Amino acid sequence: MITIDDMKKAVVAALNENFGYPCYEFGVVEQMEYPCFFVRITENGELYTKNRYQQRYAVEIVLMHERGEHGQEIKVLKDIEKIKQIFLFAMQTEKKKVPIMNFEMEYTGERGNVPRITFDSEFLDNLYKPSDAPLMKELEMKEDLNDGNAKH
Fold first, then answer.
1. What is the pLDDT of residues 13-56, one digit of tens each?
2. Helices (H), 1-152
3. Domains of the chain from N-terminus onward
């Protein structure tokens, strides 16, 4: 089963692989390196059947660039487009590829100049856990079968 931790690792790994910017948790306000990302994952799911769970994850990525630097808008727009290409259809986790939907981008912050990207991932996950018991290796039959009838 894919966990919220698996989703966070997959998002951070995809951002690191494509950008190399540091990723921080929301709430960090000191000693940040710019540009950087803030990544938050929230979860909301429900039991779908006895063996299946309907997973729903919401992903939020905030892209921060250095304050006061001029000429950043084009770089920010290119970064947003790159994020869109990475997460537009699907995302690879350690366990499987998951679908992406509801991709949105808006600006937030005091001056409305901080890009905030959100998207969702919804999929069915298996609750069944395979047994660790060893498989049967040999089968001994103590009765002879003759035309479907047991011979004693």
1. 999 999 999 999 888 778 889 999 999 999 999 999 988 999 99
2. 4-18, 72-87
3. 4-129 (3.30.2000.10)
